[in-house]
Write a structure and sequence with these properties.
This protein is mostly helical. 83% of the residues lie in helices and 0% in strands. Helix 3 packs antiparallel against helix 4 (69-85). The mean pLDDT is 89.
Length: 87
């Protein structure tokens, strides 16, 4: 019985780690006090993850009017790439 729950525990841990990584990348991407290059790397990493969750984070960045237009456009580019790769 314990063996059956272990995969769920491991899967939950992986999902929690991925969620934490998404939160950290989103925080970096929106921190205007950080260097532009670092924010762009965070956006690129979100695009490379190519998951539904990373797509949602990228779309949140696109909708964030506090961000610089070029960064919002860069996030949109990566969101488009995720959408294209899913077809």
């Amino acid at each position: 019985m314990q063996d059956e729950t272990l995969p769920h525990v491991a899967q939950r841990t992986i999902m929690e780690e991925r969620s934490e990584e998404l939160r950290k990348l989103a925080a970096i991407a929106t921190d205007l006090e950080l260097a532009r290059e670092l924010r762009h790397k965070a956006i690129e990493q979100l695009g490379k993850m190519s998951t539904h969750e990373s797509l949602l984070v990228l779309l949140e960045l696109v909708a964030n009017e506090k961000l610089i237009f070029k960064e919002r456009d860069f996030a949109l580019k990566h969101a488009r790439e995720i959408i294209k790769s899913s077809h």
